[in-house]
Amino acid sequence: MVDLTIMVTKEQLKSVDKSEDIFPYGHIGTHFDVMNKEFPIAYTKLEGLIFDVSKVSNRDIDIDDINIKKLKKNLFVGFYTGFIDQVEYATEKYNQQHPQLSDALIDVLLDHEVAIIGVDFAGIRRGKEHPPKDQYCADKGTFVVENLCNLDKLLNKGSVRINTYPIKFGGMSGLPCRVIGEIL
Q1: Distance of CA 23 to CAs 18, 55, 77, Å?
Q2: Helix, strand or coil for residue 64?
Q3: Do the Cβ atoms of 145 and 117 come closer than 8 Å?
Q4: Which of 60, 96, 130, 178 would bridge 123 by S-S if both were Cys, CB 3.0 to 4.6 A apart?
Q5: Helix 130-139 with 103-111: angle, nearest 10 deg
Q6: CB atoms within 10 A of CB 165
Q7: What domains appear along the chain, each with residue ranges and CATH number?
Q8: Is 154's pLDDT higher than 80?
Q9: What average pLDDT is seen over the chain?
Q10: How far out from the chain centre does Cα 88 lie?
Q11: Kind of pairing, strands 76-80 and 2-3?
């Protein structure tokens, strides 16, 4: 088993965005951007597919960077960039200069009805594009889990299952969660 959840420290908690109305820690550490949706319990255990996109730099991660033939409905699709290991979590650089997925790649993932998109950085898009793109995914039944670690330990291991356990809060746009990868 591989823990894919980042450790959150007291210092990092000080950097939490206090804009969350109900609970300010919805977007700290490894978490789902569920937006205004409820996380389906069926998504707690999913077949996983992890793509190594660590060689992509100075551009968005795009369709040609993955094997789209491997995509299918109800997958947990993770993207390993190594960014979380290179840049300190919760810093300005981490939050504003992270990799991102292209809009075209996001649409392909949604067209294949993947259940979860997992990334080892702060969001599938940056800045002002971040919340609307998360909402776009959630509206199509796909959730984004951010700030994963150790995805490289699941690369080239054959079949994997990803177990995801968000805290059961209601009315929040983000849910902290524990994510564990199992090599089958």
Answers
A1: 8, 37, 28
A2: helix
A3: yes
A4: 130
A5: 10
A6: 15
A7: 29-181 (3.50.30.50)
A8: yes
A9: 88
A10: 17
A11: unpaired
